[in-house]
Specification:
The complex is a heterodimer of chains A (254) and B (258). Chain A is mostly helical and 254 residues long. In chain A, 66% of the residues lie in helices and 0% in strands. Chain A has helices at residues 25-30, 33-58, 65-76, 87-117, 133-136, 138-156, 163-167, 175-183, 186-213, 222-248. Classes of the chains: A mainly alpha (254), B alpha+beta (258).
């Protein structure tokens, strides 16, 4: 509800100006909706970087078992021997986790803000003009992708829901075998495909949104923003969807 | 060539007061010329209601020439109805066909409480403008024209933003009830011009902070711009975001200098 408040009168002379106490910069920025959109955009950029390199790394699957497993070993040895084994990997992991938490928290609090902004919904059907399926389903696609991430970690990182874990010893470093065993189950392969298509939908709107939220707007590249978003989403989706399909159709097998 | 529409079913939202329970009321307009404006169609309906001793449907309207920003109405799920770049008062019945059903609802947003029927209180917009949508200039003799040179593209962009009539269609159309297009337009209008530079960042921060108290947040659907009778571009939202970020830095610096 709009409440009418009298405007605060400021002192007339500069000498009478008192310094307003401010919250620390980032807290100050994050406390507003526009600031939360900055957090959404920046964490989104970090997560985009992750999904792109995750997809590129997994293409090693097509080069064979040894290549993929060696790549997994390489990730553990990032910057080794300068840094201890796995240290850089853990820094990246914690950074990503932080970004994910930030992304989820901003999404949650903005959603709640938006609900409060329209407590009584329209009683007749809306006729949307510009809102796309992607933009309208950001929350749904985001939730499905989040559930997928949890499953994906349980499946191929911890081996809890991997069949090798169920009837034998799950060896995490045998990445290639684990992937093939997992995707040999068609419902799992189907879930991976569906989740990645939704990830693509999420990206196709989210990547474009980043430009707006960060105020990156210029007639020189505005026409490219949609193309970049769709192109990025397409590259990630095609790569990621190919993995379960390749296993299902026997292109990649043990 | 005028043409007569027949048998229009009009479902109109009736609500006795801000906290009353509302409902749709159905009326049939047997015949109306397609040269009538949408509001004239409602006038015809109201004349009939009054002659029957019933209460007229309350709706906002003033200039009826598309420049004051008073009229509103969600018509068949679209703010200001089906015609782009057009306010409800400039919408004509030729946009509809005989036997159509027309559903009319008020703007719905927490910050726009319903006064009665289709009339809403949009004073939350005034709170935002009060907080920075002006230039604090000492008044005196009118300055000479072109005393302050403004590059043509800048003048054009500022004018495009200044075209905002503050009708609230952007908030009404936004699935999130956000006012970013309105506030973006008000900020862009002044922040692009040389006269607005002195208070540029104070304005950006104050107006965005006030917006935050009343409205939702932008998720870049683009519904606002599509509904805007003045076709204000989403570019103003990006400019607002940029100036708000800069303001957070610059205003802190300014404070430390005091």
């Amino acid at each position: 509800m709009a409440t009418s408040t009298a405007p605060v009168r400021e002192p007339v002379t500069a000498t009478a100006t008192t310094i307003k106490k401010r919250k620390p910069f980032l807290v100050d920025l994050y406390s507003t909706a526009v600031g939360k959109k900055y957090a959404m955009a920046i964490s989104g950029l970090a997560l985009m970087g992750f999904v792109l390199f995750h997809m590129i790394g997994n293409l090693k699957m097509y080069l064979g078992e040894a290549d993929l497993n060696e790549y997994a070993e390489f990730l553990k040895k990032l910057l080794y021997p300068l840094a201890p084994k796995e240290s850089v990997l853990w820094i990246l992991r914690l950074g990503l986790l932080g970004m994910l938490v930030l992304h989820l928290h901003a999404a949650w609090s903005l959603t709640m803000l938006n609900r409060r902004a329209r407590p009584v919904r329209y009683q007749s059907a809306r006729d949307y003009q510009e809102a796309s399926m992607a933009s309208r389903s950001m929350r749904l696609s985001g939730i499905v992708v989040f559930v997928f991430i949890v499953w994906h970690l349980l499946d191929l990182t911890f081996g809890v829901v991997n069949t090798i874990g169920a009837d034998g010893e799950y060896v995490r470093s045998e990445v290639y075998a684990n992937v093939v065993r997992s995707f040999d189950r068609w419902p799992v392969a189907l879930f991976y495909v569906v989740a990645n298509l939704l990830l693509g939908l999420h990206l196709s709107h989210g990547v474009w949104s980043i430009f707006q939220s960060l105020g990156w707007n210029n007639p020189r590249f505005n026409a490219w923003r949609t193309a970049i978003a769709r192109g990025f989403a397409a590259v990630v989706v095609v790569g990621n969807v190919s993995f379960p399909l390749a296993v299902t159709f026997g292109i990649v097998s043990v | 060539m005028s043409h007569t529409l027949s048998n229009l079913t009009v479902k109109v939202w009736r609500q006795d007061g801000p906290n009353a329970v509302g409902r749709f009321e159905t009326h049939v307009i047997e015949s109306i010329t397609d040269e009538a404006s949408f509001l004239e169609m409602l006038d015809v309906l109201n004349e009939r209601l009054i002659s029957q001793g019933k209460e007229a449907v309350v709706f906002d309207h003033d200039c009826r020439e598309g420049i004051c920003g008073t009229c509103s109405l969600m018509i068949n799920g679209q703010a200001h109805g089906p015609q782009r770049a057009t306010t409800t008062c400039q919408l004509h019945m030729r946009s509809f066909k005989s036997n159509d059903t027309i559903v009319i609802e008020p703007w719905r947003a927490g910050a726009f409480p319903i006064v009665k029927d289709l009339m809403v209180n949009r004073s939350a917009f005034d709170r935002i403008v009060e907080s920075g949508g002006y230039i604090t200039s000492p008044t005196g003799g009118a300055p000479d024209a072109n005393l302050i040179p403004v590059p043509k593209p800048v003048a054009d962009a500022a004018m495009d933003s200044a075209a905002c009539i503050g009708c609230g269609a952007c908030v009404a159309a936004c699935p999130n009830g956000a006012a970013n297009l309105f506030v973006g337009a008000k900020i862009a209008h002044l922040n692009l011009l040389p006269q607005g530079q002195a208070e540029r960042y104070r304005r950006a921060e104050a107006m965005v902070d006030t917006m935050d108290e009343h409205f939702g947040s932008c998720t870049n659907h683009g519904e606002c711009s599509a509904a805007c009778p003045k076709e204000i571009s989403l570019d103003v939202i990006a400019l607002m975001n940029k100036d708000y970020r800069s303001a957070k830095f610059k205003n802190r610096k300014e404070l430390s200098r005091n």
